[in-house]
Amino acid sequence: MNERPRIKDVAKRLGVSPATVSRALSGSGLVAEPTLSRILDVARELNYRPNVSARNLRTQRSMSVLMVVRDIGNPFYLEVMKGVEQAAREAGYSVLMGNTENDPDRESEYFDMLRDGHADGMILMTGKLPARLEAEGLVGGLPVVVALETIEDSGLPHVQIDNFAAAQDAVRHLIELGHRRIAHITGPLPEGMSTLRRDGWRAAMAGAKLPVPDGYEQLGDYQLHTGQVLCGRLLDLPEPPTAIFCANDESAFGAVHELHRRGRAVPDDVSVVGFDDIYLSEAIFPPLTTVSQPRADIGRESMSMLLELIAGGKVALDPIVMPTELKIRGTTGPVAKPN
Fold first, then answer.
1. pTM of the full predicted structure?
2. What angle do CA 100, 104, 106 make, to 5 degrees?
């Protein structure tokens, strides 16, 4: 069996020192062109791969990061993961996915992994910190970036969108279509992202001087089944809404399913708007009108910020706010005229 290529093999081919090759392959920035490109080309030609175990012993780093989410089954996270993984791979890191399922013990376990050195940093997407660690002051100073969610007063850097403004825009779209009875299926309150989307709905309604009747705000949890159940409750109100703004796409899918089950036409009878623009949004019928956010870009930006923290650099605590776009599709239309 052929031996695995080593740094000295690359160095011998080029007539440079092994130390020069090591500095070039580590991305240190200490090797100038054209030597850098020649080393990279020969390393690829020889199929050289670094000895990760040896490197980790030298650097005392795991060369892996954690991406911690609340529900690994939610397709929302796939595009974020792609962006994180791309930026991580370019820097020589691997990405471990952590799934909390809203279990406080599991949330704490992932932070313990970080504190114990099993990962070098964390991208946190659960919307909250473990209560035990927060109470004991054990979060400060850890290399953690909060992505998409908002954790107030955490002292952690954030990469996010303007959830309030995006929700406002979505509801204003319904108002412009003539809707006056617009309900909202929330995410889990009082978590920051859910609260901002709820507040954006309230602000759009107040700005148009539209009332919010009792029962028009239904407490959800981002789950498809919950969206279906809560849509049913809205339809059972004495004066049901003509439009429903949902805090995420999965709950919107549930709402559309319930409307179809009850024989209500979408959007002729009831319009529905979601939030996130996951890939299934165009697969349902009719295709879902939803707020689109650049999830892959958010993943890349979060990983780049995390790498800066891991390297001991300073990052701004003012959140990086990424743009959103309302994708108008088939689930929204003009309010039905009364018979």
1. 0.75
2. 45
Q: Which domains does the chain have, with CATH numbers?
A: 7-50 (1.10.260.40), 62-161+295-323 (3.40.50.2300), 163-292 (3.40.50.2300)
Give the full edge-to-edge strand order of the sheet including 320-322.
94-99, 64-69, 122-125, 144-147, 158-161, 320-322
| Long-range CB contacts for residues 149-157, cutoff 8 Å, separation at least 24 | 149/124, 149/125, 149/191, 149/192, 149/193, 150/192, 150/193, 150/196, 150/319, 151/124, 151/127, 151/192, 152/192, 154/129, 155/317, 156/124, 156/317, 157/305, 157/309, 157/315, 157/316, 157/317, 157/319, 157/320
Q: Strand, coil or helix: what is 10? A: helix
142 within 8 A of 122, measured Cβ to Cβ: yes
- Per-residue pLDDT tens digits for 160-200: 999 999 999 999 999 999 999 999 999 998 888 899 999 99
Helix residue spans in 208-332 (DSSP H): 224-235, 249-261, 295-310
C-beta neighbour count of 3 within 10 angstroms: 6
